[in-house]
Amino acid sequence: MANIGFAHKGSYVQPIGQYVQTASQQITFKRRVLVTLGWNDPRTIRVIGQYARTAGWHLETRHFFDESLPLHWRGDGLIVSYPQRADLLAFIRRQTPRQPTVLVGLNQPGIVAGQVMEDNQMAGRLAAQHFMERGHTQFAWLSAYKGLVSNDRHRGFSSALAESGFKCHRLEYRRDRSSLRDWRHRQAWLARQLRDMPRPLACYVLDDQLASEAIEVCLAHGWRVPEDFAVMGTGNIEIACECSHVPISSVDLAEEEIALKAAQLLDRLMRGRKQPAHPIMIAPRGVVIRSSTDFLAVASPLLRRAVDFIGANLRRPFSLEQVAESVGVSRRTLYSLFRRHLSRSPAEFVVQARLDRARQLLAASPNQTIANLAAQSGLGSPRTLTRLFLRYEGVNARAWKKAHRDGVRPLHLSASPAATSLSA
């Protein structure tokens, strides 16, 4: 008779992961893998589950759903991430030496294991690049948690800004025991911090949940998002980003790729391969642009009028002379305005804005034809659209379209090359 943990034959006990011989048949047991995650991203468990089916694992996921711990568990592999709970952390530390283990994410729970992590400094740099491309000059970093992840995201953000001569306000909520899980206390603190901040302010936030909370605080106090406070999250968790009061722009950390690499690494370790000498680092895919940063922060009224004209006319052909005429300046002055405030020419701005429009249309309606997509974005021909996607996305438009239709984000999602995300 077999139970969940062991196979019995008389008084003999055989660990699962091998097989036993009965009088009637030979029973083969799958490798048993336990997944315990301190940060429960549904994309992670979905990808690990897909790999487990292909590899023939028995996947123990109860903790993922009800937070229970299999205290006397014995198996063949473990996938873990840093937990907030002390009892889970103690379990992971105790369990790690007993079987091959892979740690997902940066924060170290005091164990020695194979590791697959996101590039948090690059995430911060992408957020800074996105804001600077939109003309922002005032910036803030917002976090509610200490740790290596928070430090690295802030470091990447602030260092990229410093390289361009900008400073970053650091807003970090310091919790005590009484306010550990009190959202109202944190929201009141954030409101006090933002009240005296310069505007427009570009805020890069530790994660999407805190970004959603920051947007709610802004709206509750009559502050506009993104006009007063542009908010960028991290992680691109769609249920958080798209169900916020204002849909949240976010850095896509490539969580699916991280989960896949973690499962592949564990598979190799369970087959006797050596642990990598260094952690496996996965680069972010880029910035996914939504309404919370969909604003060009420019001080020049003339440039604002030029940008508005371009946004209202993206679908139809127009010349730079027409843009200059709409503003009441010469073409040379128009060129100087774009160079001085946005560090690009008017022509570059128009091309990138149209590409951004095509990207948004394709994400919203993956089944439309490439020809229609080119026409709706003002790029004219499928050939032009394909050439620009190859340049900025690393794949052609058809491949990008198929990836969205299948529910998988392309590996070369834009690192926000577009100058703006304008609505006509």
Question: What does this protein structure show overall?
Answer:
Residues 1-20 and 409-424 have low confidence and may be disordered. A six-stranded parallel beta sheet has the order 6-5-7-8-9-15, sandwiched between helices. It is globular. The protein has 16 helices and 16 strands. It has three domains: 6-117 and 257-282, 3-Layer(aba) Sandwich (Rossmann fold); 120-253 and 286-293, 3-Layer(aba) Sandwich (Rossmann fold), CATH 3.40.50; 301-405, Homeodomain-like (Arc Repressor Mutant, subunit A, Orthogonal Bundle), CATH 1.10.10. It is of the alpha/beta class and 424 residues long. Helix 4 runs parallel beside helix 5 (148-163) and helix 6 crosses helix 7 (208-220). The longest helix has 19 residues, at 346-364.
